[in-house]
Amino acid sequence: MKKTCRAGIRQTGPESGGMEGKNVRLKRLCLFLTVLLVCPLLAGSFPYALSEPPEALYNAIITYNYASSYTNVYTQMDTESEVLTKYYAGHALKVTAVYPNWAEIQYRDGVAYVLRHRIDRVTPVNVRTTPPYGVWVNQYYTIADRDIRIYAEKSADSELLTVLTKGARLALIGVEDGWGVVVYKRQYGYVDTSLLSALYPVSPDAETETDPTVPIAVYCSFYSDNVTRTSNLAVCCKRLNRVMKPGESLDFNGSVGPFNKENGYLPAPVLIDGETRQGYGGGSCQVSSTIYNTVLQLPGITVTERHPHGSNGAPYLPHGTDASSGDLNFKFRNDYAFPVRVEGSIHDFCLFIAFYREAE
To answer: Distance between CA atoms of 262 and 340, rounded to whole angstroms?
Structure first.
């Protein structure tokens, strides 16, 4: 979802006749050609330079995790794009938009982009109107009754990210131009909604929802084709599914663990401090992380313990939205006045988590 320069030419004043009119028109033609040549250069250096910068949503700083190096500020959400400037640790930022791997920031009279793992201490400018940093609220979900193809752009000619087959559940942020928008790892993905049999709504308000079949929050993440890791995800989901009473807490390690052979877990890759190792229950962190992204959408669920996978997080989720388990732990509490049901399932490289308001 790249943004380009918005530039236009506005002509004012009446047209004139005779030699004077020819001179005016010649000057305008020269101005027009100059703008055509110069505007692309300005667009590369000053995105949105000809318009007001968008309002800041968050305050942030350049992280101290890389204090010995600088952070590039780009014209586009692409590390191959032009570098506008370099910021060092502690530099204050105004964040205007958040994407899976990038943050849009105010820059001079426009906007620019920095990688999300290079910023820290992100706080909402207005906590009453701005959601917590990194939250993607899914408005819909679908259940595949045929192949679902997820593309990198809103076009069937763009890169194919993955294919889900019949039975897979997929969470969608919303719909743009007939394309369903999903968070695919650290980018957006798109599905053609005309090929979906149905889009099911997610309740916008858990407090007023009365139908126990309508989820109050959903989220999905994607995984690779690793047999033992996939098996661990299935075991983890089976041990996770439950109803939580008001005030009840879920201790992830205590509920789905211990991660050993006796509980059905197999050796698989485990992500520890950004490094991959083999260990029983490898993949369980993806379940805890996907749950974390689900509960972030629910103001009545309180996270009481959460740890990231090192400074760059887990690559299968947007930066800063992972929750480690195993050596560390993930815990949350149901602070709603009603019970909630937690369900997890996997199918075709897609892990799907849903919360429901359970009938009392």
So the answer is: 29
Predicted structure pTM score = 0.80
Average of per-residue pLDDT across 11-26: 37
Q: Which of 133, 149, 177 is at the close of a domain? A: 133
How wide is the angle at C-alpha 315 spanned by C-alphas 311 and 316, nearest 5°?
A: 135
Number of domains making up the chain: 2
Mean pLDDT across the stretch 240-259?
A: 95
Pairing status of strand 92-98 against strand 58-62:
antiparallel
Residue ending a domain, choose from 133, 159, 177: 133
| Ramachandran bin of 143, using left for φ above 0, alpha for ψ from -120 to 50, beta for the remaining angles | beta
Within 8 A by CB and 6+ apart from 267, the residues are 228, 278, 279, 280, 282
Q: 145 and 52: one domain? A: no
pLDDT tens digit sequence for 300-338: 999 999 998 887 888 899 988 999 998 899 999 999 999
Which distant-in-sequence residues (6+ apart) come within 8 Å of 189 by Cβ?
Answer: 150, 151, 152, 161, 162, 181, 182, 183
Cα 126 → chain centroid: 20
What is the CA 180 to chain-centroid distance, rounded? 14
The values of phi and psi at residue 108, to 5°, are 55, -120
